[in-house]
Write a structure and sequence with these properties.
Structural class: alpha+beta
Number of strands: 12
Strand content: over 45%
Shape: globular
Distance between the termini: 83 Å
Largest sheet: 12 strands, antiparallel
Number of helices: 4
């Protein structure tokens, strides 16, 4: 083969490689609006794939004085019942306070009838009209813990009205399924600064992804005292489509 033929073949190969490379990354070129719509559609399909569920939640809660001294370490085990879009009930099973057995009445959230988790059923990022409440940015593919994700950043345009303030969604690059959410949240049940939080999702059935772990941490201001808090909720033993009645959530 002549040198001219080799050069022509090389040019053709290079051109083909450029074309294939440009065709191989449609998701990375996706704009934020397209990515948001894809993620919301997948979330809605995910929610529609089951009628209800129950699971076990193990809640590890720590409270420190601002000087770093540990004040309380509570561990609770609860049964969680959930029915889309946002019917949720927690039932106390057992608990310890500073390694000593404790009852439901010993824990302030449970005594007041409040839960200590973010609701992910009616996720406000995916509600109708969310486009007017949040601004979105798509920085592209990012690697986290050895996996690649399409990242969608969000920021509240109405921070006094929304629970979520700002953060990132980690989406499956092939399906847009939500795999992780992290950012800042305001819990209006208590007077707080912005709290850092994260929530991971695991596949519990081929067509259903549900929370596997949630963490939330920050400084809580209640009356005249401030405390640093950290909570990790681990969700396990999922059972789906149980036919739970609405009366269970009254």
């Amino acid at each position: 083969m002549s040198s001219r033929s080799i050069l022509a073949l090389s040019v053709l190969c290079l051109a083909a490689a450029i074309i294939l490379w440009s065709m191989a990354e449609p998701l990375q070129a996706a704009d934020a609006s397209t990515l948001f719509q894809c993620a919301r559609q997948q979330w809605q399909r995910n929610q529609a794939a089951y009628s209800d569920y129950q699971c076990t939640m193990t809640s590890d809660r720590k409270v420190w004085h601002l000087n770093g001294e540990l004040e309380r370490h509570n561990v609770l085990v609860k049964r969680v019942y959930f029915k889309p879009p946002n019917m949720r009930r927690e039932v106390f099973i057992s608990g310890t306070m500073n390694d000593e057995p404790a009852q439901k009445k010993d824990f302030i959230f449970e005594r007041l009838g409040l839960d200590n988790s973010l609701s992910v059923g009616d996720l406000e990022l995916f509600r109708i009209g969310a486009e007017q409440q949040f601004a979105y940015e798509a920085p592209g593919i990012k690697t986290r813990a050895g996996e690649q994700f399409e990242v969608l950043k969000f920021r509240s345009l109405q921070p006094k009205k929304t629970e979520l303030q700002q953060g990132r969604l980690f989406l499956d690059p092939d399906t847009c399924m939500l795999r992780r959410i992290e950012g800042e949240v305001i819990n209006r049940l208590v007077q707080t600064n912005r709290m850092k939080f994260s929530m991971d999702f695991s596949q519990v059935r081929p067509d259903v992804w549900l929370p596997s772990q949630m963490t939330i941490e920050g400084v809580v201001k209640m009356v005249l005292m401030k405390r640093k808090t950290f909570t990790r909720n681990v969700f396990s033993d999922y059972r789906l489509d149980l036919g739970l009645s609405d009366e269970l959530f009254d």
